[in-house]
Amino acid sequence: MTGTEKKTALKAPKGVPDYVPPASAGFVAVRDAITTAARRAGYGHIELPIFEDTALFARGVGESTDVVSKEMYSFEDRGGRSVTLRPEGTAGVMRAVIEHGLDRGQLPVKLCYAGPFFRYERPQAGRYRQLQQVGIEAIGVDDPALDAEVIAVADEAFRSLGLTGFRLELTSLGDETCRPQYRERLQAFLAGLDLDEATRERARINPLRVLDDKRPEVRAQLEDAPLMIDHLSDASAEHFATVRAHLDALGVAYTVNPRMVRGLDYYTKTTFEFVHDGLGAQSGIGGGGRYDGLMEQLGGQALSGIGFGIGIDRTVLALQAEGFDPAAQGRVDVYGVALGAAAKAAMVPVLAEFRRNGLRADMAYGDRGMKGAFKAADRSGAAVTVVIGENELETGTAVVKTMSTGEQEPVPLEAILGHVTRAVER
Ligand code: HAM
């Protein structure tokens, strides 16, 4: 190949989205709304490794789940260890809590994380191979009020974004006293149905998963299947009733969906999903629940925990489905146009002052003419443009233009901060 030959441009791997401006503003808005809601409830930040020992997910998430059995990005590193790109956050949080002894301090341990997760799924709208989540986990206290708090943090985050078309579905998956009996009851029921071999095998390993079968011929047979919610132990039933009472008091609306099946095996007691109807097949914008046995399963104490994972990608799509354009806000508040080198020298410190005072500010760089500079001002989405030319240099002023009205007025440079701040706020 000669050096002058044009190379083919490379693309991101299938199912791996980029987040570029202006759309990336929506991504940031969603992520920040959720982390803000979590911070207000006392959740501290945890930054997790992107890859972990494969055994963590096999043990933590469950071998019978699709996530572990079909969707993991696992590979051998150069030292011959099997590692996996994290498919979800809860197992990693538990590992870190145990490893750092956080569970020996004040309980509950409340943690929040955000970032990419990896699942080898079939890509489609709202389903990616690299997906972005914000999650929270509250570990070490089994209190229904904490379940309600976790759910309310998600609800509050969605509301703060202006999202309205979402629903909360809730159920209880019971505890170690009622779950094994229910499992047997369900297995006995499933044994009497006309099912194919693969489904029978599923019924044997994890009968709950069969309840999630989408095929009409299977669904029809499942109509009279026993449901966990009707066979809860007294303690689990009371736990669930208390969670619901707290949610009622908080004004968080929900429907009970006793047939909810989550894609991960660790859930016990309260389990929930946030669903948005504007998204088609990939309607789950977030989900979570309590996990009683997980910490012990990973070699820690027998402590319970509860948390959620919210899909940032799908929440952005949900906002779009409701007509929001989180990117419409504009990239900056104020844009500088300086005509000539001397004017530019005057503009640079003005811009720095704007930024120090919390205004988002940018200016036309390079030596483009007035027309190009004003076009760039328009494109930036700034509410105000500040212009310094030869006349202004002589008089120590700048022209402040309000973009929405086209109004212009000369303002002395020493008064420009206050003036522009007021104009941006209008
Ligand atoms: P999950 O339900 O597997 O739960 O994922 C949480 C959310 O991540 C989903 O509701 C969805 O919005 C988003 N999501 C999942 N897979 C994809 C994908 N392929 N493309 C786009 N978005 C996706 C968990 O991961 C649990 N760790 C949540 C949790 C925390 N439970 C207790 N604590």
Mean pLDDT: 95
CATH superfamily of the largest domain: Bira Bifunctional Protein, Domain 2
What proportion of the residues is helical, as a percent range?
A: 25-40%
Number of DSSP helices? 16
CATH topology of the largest domain: BirA Bifunctional Protein, domain 2
The radius of gyration computed from the alpha-carbon positions, rounded to a whole number of angstroms, is: 27 Å
**Which hetero ligands occur in this complex?**
histidyl-adenosine monophosphate
Anisotropy-based shape = elongated
Distance between the termini: 59 Å
CATH architectural type of the largest domain: 2-Layer Sandwich
Side by side, the strands of the main sheet go: 1-5-6-11-10-9-7-8
The unreliable regions are: none
Number of strands: 16
Q: How much beta, percentage-wise?
A: 15-25%
Main sheet attributes: strand count, strand direction, barrel closure: 8 strands, mixed
Helical/strand content category: alpha+beta
The tally of structural domains comes to: 3
What is the top-level CATH class of the largest domain?
Alpha Beta
